[in-house]
Amino acid sequence: MKRTIVSAVALAATAWASAAYAACDWKPERPVSVIVPWGAGGTTDTNTRQLATMLQQKFDVPFNVVNRTGGNGVVGHSAISRARPDGYTIGAATVEINTMHWFGLTNLTYKDITPIALINQPSASVLVSKDSPFGSLKELLDHARENPGELTASGTALGGIWHLALAGMLNAEGLEAETIRWVPSEGSASALQELLAGGVDMVTPSLLEGKTLIDAGEIKALAYMSDKPSEAYPDVPLTARELPSGWTLSAYTTISAPANMPEDIVCSYEAALKEIVETKEWAEFRSSLGAPVVWGGSKELLDLMTQYDEGLGNTVKAIGMAKGQ
């Protein structure tokens, strides 16, 4: 009798798995819009465009990337959240989905989108122009401490993750968040151009977003906000070692979808993206950026978003910038 019960359970499990796999076969039959909440040329845009190209090849329908900037990231994330959950709109929701509501910019949270896959998780950095008088992060922070409000920085919108990277670091080092004034931008690409033009003194995007300019000798990296060396730039000092506070911060980029997307569509996209991320083509693309391959499925991504929302919320509160909570 025991053996029969075990066999029945095994058969039931096999049938359930087969049914679940069979249900994971949705395919788009017309063009798909891929919303990027940030400007063209940044890491989010670059990674998303490559994925869109590879999804187009897989599904044989156009995947059209649309940059919906504005509102400090609110416009694009709202467009992702409020679209019809029919599979024909997906988007590159970023870590700002965990910060915007803490800054009082919107009521939108990670609970208002459907997470599908984690595709990138870069750490922040401190970048300055080649002509900057600062040769180290310590020199820069010492100057800021002695001359509060003189220096300016950029990297993203007000309340964006690269803004929080700076404000959180300053707070951790015992400085007011406004010790270095933040100049909002539509993303890292425009912030880097502002740095080159002399409009700001520093930027705090991911280290790899500055790769082209670093390699060209136009800017220099003073610090990497991580406890592990960058694969591309292992000699860049780590904030975990350089700063008394040990401050670190990383962002993330996802492929997500409108709220309440049916499970079979989520499953189909997740499976397709996992297959793409495991290809040699994707690995070579990431390597060209100096970045490792990163992957997390929908369940892992939801857990990550939940953890980040609490942790970043605590940081926003600590720097005295939380509103409407």
Report on the structure:
There is one protein chain. The protein is globular, with a radius of gyration of 21 Å. The protein starts with a helix and ends in a 7-residue tail after the last helix. α5 links the parallel β6 (152-154) and β7. Mean pLDDT is 91; it is low at 1-22. The strands form 4 sheets. The protein has a 3-stranded parallel sheet. A 3-stranded parallel sheet has the order 7-6-8, with helices on both faces. The protein has helices at residues 2-23, 43-59, 74-82, 137-146, 161-172, 188-196, 211-215, 239-242, 263-277, 280-288, 298-318, and strands spanning 32-36, 63-67, 89-91, 113-120, 125-129, 152-154, 181-182, 202-203, 219-224, 253-258. It has 325 residues and is an alpha/beta fold.
Number of strands: 10
Mean pLDDT: 91
Strands side by side in the biggest sheet: 2-1-3
End-to-end distance, in Å?
A: 58 Å
Order of helices and strands: HEHEHEEEHEHEHEHEHEHHH
Structural class by SSE content: alpha/beta
Query: What's the tally of helices?
Result: 11
Shape: globular
Strand content: 5-15%
How many strands, what sense, and barrel or not for the largest sheet?
3 strands, parallel
